[in-house]
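Anyone up for a design puzzle?
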């Protein structure tokens, strides 16, 4: 080959729209099958985003309804894309684009998202026969951001709040001022951080509905904390029960319940066997305990009918939300976002315990504004914030 021919060949390669990355971190693909890389990319993205249970449930449904086995996905990408969009809505396009990005990384290709491309287009453009150069693949790299610093901040805040409540019990009326302000700030930070992953997903499919629901829930709880603070800090009056704050508190359950339920219905086949039994058992224990220790005594109390509605509503909705949180945790337990769902579920558990303790304390007469039991709410907000922050970082590691 003449020097002129070599120069022309090099120019054609460098100007190709799918340019090869740096020669670093690459290995030759002589012995690697292209379809295997595609299947590996699909598997990895499913596990990273949704977990193995959801992935396996999706594969089972695809084979049962479309007669397409996992090993045949490369030959039926159009039907695979349609199934993604059926299950995840417009979020299916996001997952498909993320699969393409993972495949391009393995092939050492620069990936540029295109609005007119679907998964099939990306895959077709990346096939070895469509490229004039020798095939390469990148060494598999994972770059999920660490949330160690966030955990340290969260743990420090939890310790500081605990010490503060222990020391401030002798402050009298000043205790109410500081605790009310603290709740407004902490819940506000939680709502802001929850907004970030919700904005990332926007309206994209079922996951977008979940994030939007959780954000609206925390936002309404923040408004409830703010109204409570207005009563005690600005108006300097005892908070009536029920009050406008209780309306926001209870309203916050609805978007959370609807969002989580809406998504769990789509991945219900991922909850089976021991996972399904664990979810049912936890539900029976939680709901049974709420009925025996709170709901029955509340109904038998001499409170007004309006107060009883709120008193029964809190533990009932808490129990249902907690069951759904545990179920969601089981569904995503082994995915890359499993940790974030753990913190979100744990935050819901803590807030549920705080709500139940508040109901019991109000019924028994021992609760007061600034009581140490409020630490459960603060710890819950911290845990929720940690989970939302983890989701924000993990979602940023994908091309949405």
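Challenge accepted. My sequence:
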């Amino acid at each position: 080959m003449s020097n002129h021919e070599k120069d022309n060949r090099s120019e054609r390669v460098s100007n190709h729209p799918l340019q090869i990355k740096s020669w670093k971190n690459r290995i030759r693909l002589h012995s690697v099958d292209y379809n295997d890389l595609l299947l590996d990319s699909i598997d990895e993205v499913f596990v990273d985003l949704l977990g193995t249970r959801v992935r396996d449930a999706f594969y089972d449904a695809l084979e049962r309804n479309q007669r397409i086995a996992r090993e045949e996905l490369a030959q039926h990408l159009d039907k695979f894309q349609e199934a993604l969009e059926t299950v995840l809505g417009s979020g299916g396009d996001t997952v498909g684009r993320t699969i393409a990005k993972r495949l391009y990384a393995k092939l050492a290709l620069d990936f540029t998202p295109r609005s007119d491309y679907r998964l099939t287009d990306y895959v077709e453009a990346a096939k070895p026969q469509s490229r004039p150069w020798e095939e390469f693949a990148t060494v598999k790299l994972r770059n999920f951001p660490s949330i160690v610093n966030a955990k340290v901040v969260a743990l420090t805040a939890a310790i500081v709040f605990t010490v503060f409540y222990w020391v401030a019990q002798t402050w009298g009326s000043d205790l109410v001022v500081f605790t009310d302000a603290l709740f407004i700030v902490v819940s506000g930070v939680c709502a802001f951080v929850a907004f970030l992953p919700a904005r990332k997903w926007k309206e994209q499919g079922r996951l977008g509905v979940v994030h939007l629901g959780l954000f609206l829930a925390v936002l309404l709880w923040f408004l409830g904390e703010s109204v409570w603070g207005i009563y005690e800090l600005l108006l300097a009056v005892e908070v009536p029960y029920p009050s406008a704050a209780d309306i926001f508190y209870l309203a916050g359950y609805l978007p959370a319940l609807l969002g989580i339920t809406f998504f769990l219905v789509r991945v219900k086949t991922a909850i089976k066997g021991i996972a399904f039994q664990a979810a049912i058992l936890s539900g029976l224990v939680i709901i049974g305990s709420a009925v025996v220790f709170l709901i029955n005594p509340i109904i038998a109390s001499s409170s007004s009918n309006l107060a009883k509605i709120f008193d029964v509503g809190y533990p009932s909705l808490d129990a249902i939300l907690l069951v759904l949180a545990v179920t969601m945790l089981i569904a995503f337990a082994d995915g890359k976002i499993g940790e974030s769902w753990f913190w979100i579920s744990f935050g819901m558990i803590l807030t549920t315990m705080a709500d139940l303790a508040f109901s019991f304390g109000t019924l028994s007469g021992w609760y007061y504004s600034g009581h140490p039991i409020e630490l459960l709410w603060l710890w819950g907000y911290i845990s929720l914030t940690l989970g939302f922050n983890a989701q924000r970082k993990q979602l940023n590691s994908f091309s949405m």
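A detail worth pointing out: The chain is about 70% helix and 0% strand.
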